[in-house]
Design brief:
The complex is a heterodimer. By secondary structure, chain A is α/β, with parallel strands linked by helices. Chain A is 46% helix and 17% strand. In chain A, helix 4 crosses helix 18 and helix 7 packs across helix 9. Chain B has a two-stranded antiparallel ribbon. Chain B is an all-alpha fold. Chain B starts with a helix and ends in a 9-residue tail after the last helix. Helices cover 73% and strands 1% of the residues of chain B. Classes of the chains: A alpha/beta, B mainly alpha.
């Protein structure tokens, strides 16, 4: 695939995702699993989806989304039964669980809570990956003095050009505070105060004209690849995948990255709850999970699977000890309380 | 004789009456036939066009959430005079329903409605519900205020009272950057939240610029096409229509590729030494104008072309033979005859342009988004359909006003759509 072709397909994928893609319109008896598209979903297809179809004979169809508990609310309250199993982010898990949007998980069927890392266990969901959002740059273009922090990300004199950030307040506000000199460990303490939020927005004002906002996980890789941005926040797995599959030389800046756990949930109005649980149990087996990092650089949640990972692969995962040490965990509790008001404030800020 | 004449007159009159009846009957039949022929279209429009619009307008003032989730609270708070705090009885009813709603997992519906009026209400409701004791150790008013000081504030209960009314002006006011303050006055929202009037103006400005660009590019093109022999014109027309048949997403995606930093357009500019470094051509207003003009151009060319085909060439020649120069002949003779096409094309392009969503979302920056982006944001992201409907209603009303203005200034009879 040439760069241009890649760019077109990436843009079209992004557009489809923006439109609330309904690719793979499901038949009534199909199990629809919705994930995050791009190279991540390619890896999931290889490790989970295809083997599941072969072993169980259940016809699994896929869909793609870009997050937001509102999207789930619309699916459940709107009465449409297009989605059965969805991979959600941490605060979507808590918010949706509180609102009754998810089916409670039968943990015995999945193998027991004690088999998984603590952050992967919830009444409404089963954690599936540990992933990071980090600064990424093209080492073929920035050869000397590469960026090492969010302060560098904000430094438009040292690194002229546009920057990519995920559209929305989550991560963006944390990164802004770290760029402003707040120690990673204190980011959420500061963000819990009104002055802290104002400070983050004030810091964002500094680079407002230099930011290209992305929504789908495939977009930052495309922006970086086409030279549209000099650096961007991106999901670490996508960066490694671009290096592996397209021979790129993108680098992940681990210091100041934020990691979080994504979980599988079953929607409360799904007509295929049993098949959904069967899929989650299948995808949570250690022998399945341990193959995921070979295809995409995300950490896994089953203790046995996590222990089995090859050292060479581990160093690129958010769960590698040296990477964990310099990053912080997403504060789910903070975002559960604040995602909606801060999303509205962020949207108003961005539109002005 | 007189009697005979009277009989004759009577006969003629009765014949005339019969004739009239027949005429009326046949006219009725014709009208019925016409009505039957129009009925399917009329029904279609009513079901798929008028009803959704009416539904949208209704949704922008509808206020059902609190009345569904907490019906007794809604009834109890209606009697409150809005001063100080409601009675202990209202507090008790509310506390009971808060528990029920939390257990039944319906609290989120009410929380969403209240949070759209008063920021932070969601967390107040949920954190109170999580800590709510089964039996109060003291009056509910003190109990709730101890759990969260917000329950001791008049503004909190005023928001609940507003949410308990059958209809609400909240969304429509918010769509024009207004709100109701604690004393019931309509006041502007704080400047950092006031965005929608600006976005509405931006939407119309982008629509205006795109329409002007389409006219500038489309008029000479349609003129040339209309002057060519039919065969050649048809062939060239296919070139105009070709992009028309290509998916909007593909065309927008193609513009991203063309205009990006290392894309062909920047490459060409640099090769020709017209630019020293790559220009920012996409993810900004420029990209929006380019992509939207390209996509909407056929809607300008088609009505212009069809009108221009109908303008006899002889008129220009006649004007020239009467001594008018080419410019004068064009301005005084040709241009006025194409006004119906210009009007139709501009109206079509403008109205389509102000509804655009996906193209600005892909090739624009954060401050190039138009009203539709926010309709989609409230529909899909925050699921605040009241707000989405209100923005849609404001856009609809503003467009109707512009349309009425156009009808007044130019006249609808001077409109030719093809």
């Amino acid at each position: 695939m040439t760069r241009q072709q890649f760019a077109v397909s990436a843009a079209v994928v992004a557009a489809g995702a923006l439109l609330g893609s309904s690719a793979g319109s499901a038949l009534a008896q199909d199990l629809t699993v919705t994930s995050w598209g791009g190279s991540y979903q390619d890896a999931q297809r290889k490790v989970y989806f295809e083997p599941f179809k072969q072993e169980t004979g259940i016809n699994l169809v896929e869909d793609v989304w870009n997050g937001g508990v509102g999207a789930i609310r619309a699916k459940v309250e709107g009465g449409g039964q297009e989605w059965d199993v969805v991979q959600v982010e941490a605060e979507e898990l808590v918010l949706g669980c509180e609102e009754g949007l998810y089916e409670p998980i039968d943990w015995d069927a999945v193998g027991g809570k004690d088999q998984f890392i603590d952050a992967a266990v919830d009444d409404c969901g089963v954690g599936t990956i540990v992933w990071s959002t980090a600064v990424s740059y093209d080492a073929d273009k920035i050869k000397d003095n590469p960026p090492t922090s969010w302060a560098d990300f904000w430094d438009t004199e040292k690194y002229p050009g546009k920057r990519g950030l995920r559209r929305g307040p989550k991560y963006t506000l944390e990164f802004a505070l770290m760029a402003d000199g707040v120690a990673p460990a204190e980011v959420y303490d500061v963000l819990r105060t009104e002055e802290g939020v104002d400070r983050a927005f004030a810091k964002l004002d500094e680079i407002k004209g230099d930011v290209i906002w992305w929504e789908a996980g495939a977009q930052p890789i495309q922006l970086l690849g086409s030279g549209e941005v000099v650096m961007t926040s991106a999901y670490n797995g996508r960066i490694s995948a671009a290096n592996q599959e397209e021979g790129r030389n993108f680098k992940v800046v681990w210091p100041g990255s934020i990691y979080a756990v994504d979980s599988w949930v079953i929607l409360a109005n799904s007509p295929h709850k049993e098949a959904g649980l069967e899929f989650i149990a299948f995808a949570s087996q250690p022998e399945r999970q341990s193959h995921l990092p070979e295809s995409i650089a995300y950490g896994v949640t089953h203790r046995e699977a996590a222990a089995e990972i090859d050292k060479e692969i581990l160093k690129d995962l958010p769960t590698a000890p040296e990477n964990l040490e310099v990053s912080i965990e997403l504060d789910t509790e903070f975002w559960v309380e604040n995602i909606e008001p801060l999303t509205e404030r962020f949207t108003a800020w961005a539109a002005q | 004789m007189a009697g005979g004449r009277a009989t004759l007159d009577a006969a003629a009159a009765s014949e005339l009456a019969a004739l009239r009846r027949r005429l009326r009957r046949s006219e009725r039949r014709r009208r019925l036939e016409a009505a039957l022929l129009v009925a399917p279209l009329f029904l279609f429009l009513a079901v798929f066009f008028l009803a959704p619009i009416a539904g949208m307008l209704w949704r922008s003032v509808e206020n059902p959430e609190l009345r569904e989730v907490m019906p007794r609270t809604a009834a109890a708070i209606a009697a409150w005079n809005g001063e100080d705090l409601p009675d202990e009885q209202v507090f008790a009813v509310f506390a009971g329903e808060l528990r029920e709603a939390y257990d039944a997992k319906t609290l989120a519906t009410a929380a969403k409605r209240l949070a759209s009026d008063l920021e932070g209400f969601r967390s107040v409701l949920f954190s109170t519900a999580r800590k709510l004791p089964d039996e109060p150790r003291r009056p509910w008013r003190e109990e709730l205020t101890a759990l969260d000081p917000a329950w001791g504030e008049q503004a909190t209960w005023a928001a609940i009272q507003r949410a308990a009314a059958p209809l609400t002006p909240l969304y429509l006011l918010a769509a024009v950057d207004r709100q109701v303050d604690a004393s019931g006055q309509i006041v502007p929202v704080p400047p950092e939240q006031a965005i929608y009037v600006g976005i509405l103006l931006r939407t119309f400005w982008i629509g205006f610029v795109v329409t002007a660009l389409c006219l500038l590019l489309g008029y000479p093109l349609a003129y040339k096409l209309a002057a060519l022999p039919t065969g050649v014109a048809n062939l060239l027309m296919i070139l105009v229509l070709l992009p028309f048949w290509t998916s909007l997403l593909v065309r927008t995606g193609a513009w991203v590729v063309l205009l990006q930093r290392e894309g062909p357009v920047n490459g060409l500019l640099q090769a020709l030494h017209l630019a020293d470094q790559p220009l920012q051509l996409v993810y900004n207003r420029f990209g929006v104008y380019v992509a939207m003009t390209h996509i909407l151009l056929p809607f300008m060319v088609l009505p212009l072309y069809s009108v221009m085909r109908g303008v006899p060439r002889e008129y220009m020649r006649a004007a020239a033979s009467l001594g008018a120069g080419p410019l004068r002949a064009f301005l005084r003779v040709y241009l006025p005859q194409t006004v119906p096409g210009i009007g139709a094309g501009c109206l079509l392009v403008f109205i389509l342009a102000i509804g655009y969503y996906i193209t600005p979302a892909l090739v624009g920056g954060a401050n190039d988004q138009m009203v539709s982006y926010f309709v989609a944001f409230f529909t899909n992201q925050t699921i605040n359909w009241g707000m989405a409907a209100a923005l849609g209603a404001v856009l609809l009303i503003a467009t109707l006003v512009l349309f009425a203005l156009y009808a007044r200034l130019v006249g609808l009879d001077r409109l030719k759509l093809g």
